[in-house]
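Hey, can you fold this one?
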Amino acid sequence: MAHRIIETEADIRAGMRSLRRKCAGMRRAHDAAGDPPLRRREPGLEGLARIIVGQQLSVASAGAIWARTEKAVVPFEAPRLLACSDPELRSAGLSTGKIRTLRALATAIVDDGLDLTALGACPHEEITERLTAVKGIGPWTADIFAMFCLGRADAFAPGDLALQEAARLALDLDARPAAKDLAEIALRWQPWRGVAARMLWAYYAVAKTKANALPA
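Sure. Predicted structure:
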């Protein structure tokens, strides 16, 4: 089965044209924030490792720690990552938990033959199953990898808190939807849920900026 892939800004624009036609909330978000960014990353170990490193950090902190991690692991390949000592990785700013996850991922690649690039040909359910079998990787990480590293146009991350809050605002909901509720809502955005997610993140950033600019 062929999967629609987001590769260029033209793909983002095509997705937004479709989303605007079918959803007033998407029109509202797009009118406020404009076209969302492409946000493509490397499809292999480096791309997934960067997602892991950046979890629960600000953009600035994540970027700084990732830059130091790249310098510590040269070349950025699974055997080299396993050869790095814990003190070396901690000196890059990595937490103990993230070091464990990165080591588990590298071990899965070296010992179990996990081929991250080949996951691009797999159904989304299999991508999630293969990645979450690695200790420390959860559904959110698998969803983000599918969306940004594999470029899946219909991937979505319903467990993301920013997406949940952005959906509340864009769709004028009474409360922030839970993950299962947002997954149900997102069905209306098929086959462009990955573009809808990008749009909601962009809209959330605009909404936060406006809220912070309001007088106390």
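The radius of gyration is 18 Å. Let me know if you want another pass with a different chain boundary.
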